[in-house]
Amino acid sequence: MSYCVNCGVELDATAAFCPLCHTPVVNPSQPVDTESPKPFPTHRVEVPEVSKWEVALLLTAMFLSVAVCCGILNLFLRPELSWSLYVIGAAVMLWLWLVPPLLMRGLHLGLRLVLDVLAVALYLFLISLGLGGGDWYWPLGLPIVLWGGACVLFLGLVLRKGRRSILTSVTLVIGTVGVFLFGLELLIDQFVLGRWEPGWSLVVLAVCVALVIPLVVVRRVPALREEVRRRFHM
Q1: Of 230, 234, 175, which is closest to residue 206 (Cα–Cα)?
Q2: N or C: which end of the chain has fewer CB within 10 A?
Q3: Cβ-Cβ contacts under 8 Å for 76 (sequence gap 6 or more)
Q4: 179 CB contacts (<8 Å, ≥6 apart)?
């Protein structure tokens, strides 16, 4: 056993130089072993990338097998209840969320969000079928999903353009949440009451506006903006 004369690290018998400080090893009483294998790789090798198509095929087979197995079980176990539609819908939704973005890395953000919204709408549609009808899906469920998807699409496209500051991002998120809840109550009132009776959503929207206005002021005044950044390390 020998040690590096420069840094003192323990040296393997096959080491011709110190692996830490690269000092040549000169030990007349113990020549360098050139026949034994090195204790560490001697050349750099790149790890091969995993094929995207293989991963996509694996995910597809996994979701498909779960959906088919649950569908077959539903036929033999309590066929009067369409519980397998919930699992099949979840499998389809997860497939749309994972596989297309994996295969199309350059897919536009807007198109990806549209696929995600369609996946949620399809899942909710299968749930409505399992519950015995879609009386509530078309007038209420689908409009809520589309309205929420439009809000998320707006946020995604706006926040993606350029580098948005934290203040700007928080302002946009708060404002979008207020608008979404305002529209949500409108859709619920139209479905349940047949008319719009503004209530809790106006309170939430007022709170969001009360939060957005100071943020906009801070964002527009350089002195306040710098003070907030300094105070909160933003």
Answers
A1: 175
A2: N
A3: none
A4: 151, 205
pLDDT tens per residue across span 87-115: 999 999 999 999 998 898 778 888 888 88
For residue 229, is it left (φ>0), alpha (ψ between -120 and 50) or beta? alpha
DSSP state of 138: I
3-state helix, strand, coil in the chain (%, to 5): 65, 5, 35
Question: How many other β-carbons are positioned within 10 Å of the β-carbon of residue 166?
Answer: 11
pTM, rounded to two decimals: 0.72
Kindly report, residue by residue over 182-193, the tens digit of the pLDDT.
Answer: 999 999 999 999
Q: Give dist(CA 174, CA 180) in Å, integer.
A: 10
Quote the mean pLDDT of the chain.
86
Asked if 92 contacts 119 with a C-beta cutoff of 8 angstroms, the reply is yes
Query: Residues for the chain: how many in total?
Result: 234
